[in-house]
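Hi all, long-time lurker, first post. I run a small reading group and we've been trying to get comfortable going from sequence to structure in the token notation. Rather than ask abstract questions, I figured I'd post a concrete chain and ask someone more experienced to write out its structure so we can walk through it together at our next meeting. Sequence below, copied exactly:
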Amino acid sequence: MTELDELTRLVLAFRDERDWSQFHSLRNLIVSLNLEAGELLELAQWKTDDEIAALPLDLHGREALEDECADVLLYLLLIADRAGIDLDAAARAKLVKNAVKYPVERFRGSRRKYDAPE
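-- Answer (accepted) --
Happy to help. Here is the structure in token form:
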């Protein structure tokens, strides 16, 4: 069992102990993930790049960042479980696809999208 599998087991146990599975349709989970991602984004609202870079160095900023990242991850695990997705395998497959779309020799140091003209 991987650490990701163990974390999924823990979040499912947490959910099941509270009988929340009934509320966790795939649609509701996707909506909730995006709400949590919005809360993560809110940490950056109206801040300069330097202020955002300092978040992990501040006790309260770091805790807020950790909490919002964790919320996003936990909902992602619930979505993957509901949809029958092996996140480890999906992430590895996506890295392979991205390597094809963004070959090093064409995109090293570049921020342009793969289909943008050079």
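A couple of things your group might point at:
Residues 3-85 form a domain with the Helix Hairpins fold (CATH 1.10.287.1080).
The two ends are 44 Å apart (CA to CA).
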